[in-house]
Structures are given as C-alpha cells and as structure tokens.
Design goal:
single chain, about 0% strand, 4 helices, about 85% helix
Length: about 160
Amino acid sequence: MDDVSIARALHVLAVLHWIGGLWLVTLVLLPAVGRMAEPARRLEVFEAIEGRFSGQARVSVVLAGLSGFWMTWRMDAWWRFAEPGYWWMHAMVALWAVFAVILLIAEPLVLHAWFHRAAASRPEAVYRLVLRAHRLLAAVAAVTVAGAVAGAHGMLF
C-alpha cells in the first residue's frame, strides 16, 4: 500500500468512529436519556456517557482532518474545490471545521461551563437544545457522507 491508501484507510476509520458516534449519541443515547423521569438527571447521565466519547471524537476529528489534507495534497486535488461537481469536498471540509471548532475550541473553553450553568436552571430546555443540535449535525453528516462516498466513486459527475 502506498501512503495515499494508508491515509484513505485512516480517514475512513476516523470518519466512521466520529460520525458513527454522533449517530449513536443522537439516535440512541439522547432518546434513551430523554425517557428518564427526572429532567435534572437527564443531562448528568448524558454528560457522563457522552463525555467519555468526546475525547475519542477529538482524536478522530484531528485524524480525519490530517488524513484528508494529506490525500488532497498528495493527489494534488486542490482543483476539485473549484468544480461544482465536487460539492462534497466542500461539505466534508465544512462539516470537519464545525466539529473541529466545537470539539477542540468551543466545548473545552465555553460550552462545557455554559452547559453546567444552563442545565442547573433550565434542564429541560438545555436537553431539547442539545437534542436539536445533535439531530441537525447528524442530518448534515448523513448528506455529507452519502455525497462523499457517491462522489468518490464517480456517481455525481
């Protein structure tokens, strides 16, 4: 295998872990936590479980970004960003950037403290906000992943 093949394998594994985890949190964890009787306890349970995943997601997002950059550089594929048929390249970079900012900057510096303050006074509203945000990100990720796989296999040209 050459370096691009290794980078592609690492990229797919990183995206699988990161987006698969997002879908698990969105489609399984949050609804299960939402059925708990005590709204104040919902966010505590959610954070206890999701907090373990967020560190792993940080590693996956960094690995996805580095491997994606490496492949683009090595294949000299920068021109794809100028072609409308490669919209999925823009979608991948945009989705990656959103998660990189959330996981690497906003969450540790701002969101974690805000989450605790807001959850103490408005647990139900914070839970609904977290659920909506995860649903939106999961939907955008689904379109991005489908577009990237289809595009990488020549289906969108």
